[in-house]
Design goal:
- By secondary structure, the protein is of the alpha/beta class.
- It has 2 domains: 77 residues, Ribosomal Protein L15, Chain: K, domain 2; 207 residues, CRISPR-associated endonuclease Cas1, C-terminal domain (Four Helix Bundle (Hemerythrin (Met), subunit A)), CATH 1.20.120.920.
- It is 41% helix and 17% strand.
- The chain contains 10 helices and 11 strands.
- The protein has a 4-stranded mixed β-sheet with strand order 1-5-7-8, with helices on one face.
- The longest helix has 25 residues.
- It is globular, with a radius of gyration of 19 Å.
- It starts with a strand and ends with a strand.
Length: 297
C-alpha cells in the first residue's frame, strides 16, 4: 500500500488519541485533524512551533514512519527512523555486518552502473548529450576501482550546466536549494525502506564514515537521484527562487508517489525503494546476486 506523506508548515501539537495521530493547529482555520498511523509513511515538520509528545514519536517509529525535521530556513536538517522494523532483522543484520569485501564490491559496481544508466536517461529526456555516460556505465569495474562515478558526475552536471548556466554546489545558487531538499527527502525515504527490510543504515556497502549514521542510505539512493534531478530541471520555476515555496516542496514530495519502472513493473518510487532494499537484503543473505534498481518509464 502506498503510504501518505504529511507536511506540517503550521505550528501546533501532535499527539496520539485512540491510536490515531492527532494534529491540533495553532491556526484556527487549519483546525484539528486525525490520521491513521498505519497509513503514514513520511512526516515533514517544517514549523518551528510544533510540539510532539514522546509517545507519538514512539508510535510513529514503531510503525516505520520516517520523520523529517526542518530548520529555521525551512530546509530538512535531520530525520528520525526506527532501529528496526523487520521481524527477521537479526539474521539480515548479521549477514550485512559479515558481508565480504568481494560481495560489497560487486554490489557497489551494480549500484554505480544503475546510477550512470539513469543519469544517461535523465539527460536524454532533457534533450542533452547522454551517450558518454552510457559508455561509462558499461565500463564500471568491481568496487568502481576506476571511479567511473566521479567521471560520470563531472560530465552529467556539465551537461545540466548548459541549462541556465547551472553549477552544482550545495550552497550555490538555485536550483541547488531544490536539489538539496529533494535529496534529503529521498535519503529519508531510502533509510525508511532499509530499516523496513531489516538492515542497519549505518553500515554501508561503499560509504564509510564514523560520523554518518545513514551510510547505506547514501549508497542505495544513488541510482534514484536522477529522478529528483529530472523533476527540477524540467521545471524552470526552480531556477528563479532563493527560497522554496510551498508548491515547490509539494512537487518534490510528490516524487515519492511518481511511477517508475522496476523489475518490469510500474511502481510508485517509495514502493520501488522497498523493492530495492528487499533485494539487497537477499543479496546479503546470499539468496540473490543482484540488487534490483529502477529505470525511467
Amino acid at each position: 500500500m502506498l503510504k501518505r506523506t504529511l507536511f506540517f508548515s503550521t505550528g501546533g501539537n501532535l499527539s496520539i488519541k485512540e491510536n490515531l495521530l492527532r494534529y491540533e493547529s495553532i491556526d484556527s482555520v487549519v483546525g484539528k485533524h486525525t490520521f491513521a498511523i498505519e497509513d503514514i509513511g513520511f512526516i515533514v515538520i517544517e514549523s518551528q512551533q510544533m510540539q510532539i509528545t514522546s509517545y507519538a514519536l514512539n508510535m510513529l517509529v514503531e510503525n516505520n514512519v520516517a520523520i523529517i525535521i526542518c530548520d529555521a530556513s525551512h530546509m530538512p536538517s535531520g530525520q528520525l527512523v526506527p532501529y528496526s522494523a523487520n521481524s527477521l532483522s537479526a539474521a539480515v543484520i548479521s549477514s550485512q555486518l559479515t558481508a565480504s569485501n568481494a560481495l560489497r564490491g560487486r554490489l557497489w559496481k551494480q549500484t554505480i552502473q544503475a546510477k550512470l544508466k539513469n543519469q544517461a536517461k535523465c539527460l536524454k529526456r532533457l534533450n542533452l548529450e547522454y551517450k558518454n555516460i552510457e559508455v561509462l556505465s558499461r565500463a564500471v569495474k568491481n568496487e568502481d576501482r576506476d571511479n567511473k562515478e566521479a567521471t560520470g558526475a563531472r560530465f552529467y552536471f556539465k551537461q545540466l550546466g548548459i541549462m541556465e548556466n547551472f553549477s552544482r554546489d550545495r550552497y550555490g545558487l538555485p536550483p541547488n536549494n531544490a536539489l538539496n531538499y529533494g535529496y534529503a527527502i529521498l535519503r529519508a525515504a531510502t533509510a525508511r525502506a532499509i530499516v523496513g527490510s531489516g538492515m542497519l543504515c549505518i553500515n554501508g556497502i561503499h560509504h564509510c564514515n564514523q560520523y554518518n549514521a545513514f551510510a547505506l542510505a547514501d549508497d542505495i539512493m544513488e541510482p534514484y537521484r536522477p529522478f529528483v534531478d529530472e523533476v527540477i530541471f524540467e521545471n524552470r520555476n526552480f531556477f528563479c527562487t532563493d527560497e522554496l515555496r510551498r508548491d515547490h516542496k509539494a512537487k518534490l514530495l510528490h516524487l515519492l508517489t511518481r511511477d517508475i519502472l522496476i523489475s518490469g513493473e510500474r511502481r510508485p518510487l517509495a514502493n520501488a525503494l522497498s523493492y530495492t532494499t528487499a533485494s539487497l537484503a537477499k543479496c546479503f543473505l546470499k539468496k540473490e546476486k543482484e540488487i534490483i534498481y529502477p529505470e525511467f518509464t
